[in-house]
Amino acid sequence: MDIASRHSGWVDLHVHSTASDGSLSPLKIIERAKEIGLRAVAITDHDTIEGSAEALGYPPLPSLEILSGIEISAHVPSGTMHILGYLLRLDDSSLRQTLKRVQEARANRNIKIVERLQELGVPIQYDELTAVSGGGQIGRPHIAQVLVHKGAARSVDEAFRRFLRKGGAAYVSRYRLLPGEAIQMILRAGGVPVLSHPFTLDVKDEGDLEGLLVDLKGAGLKGMEVYYPEHGRERTTQYERLARRHGLVMTGGTDFHGEAKPRVEMGIGRGDLRIPYQLVEKLKEATA
Ligand code: AMP
Ligand code: FE
Ligand code: FE
Ligand code: ZN
Question: How far is the CA of 91 from the centre of ligand 4 (A)?
Answer without folding.
Answer: 22
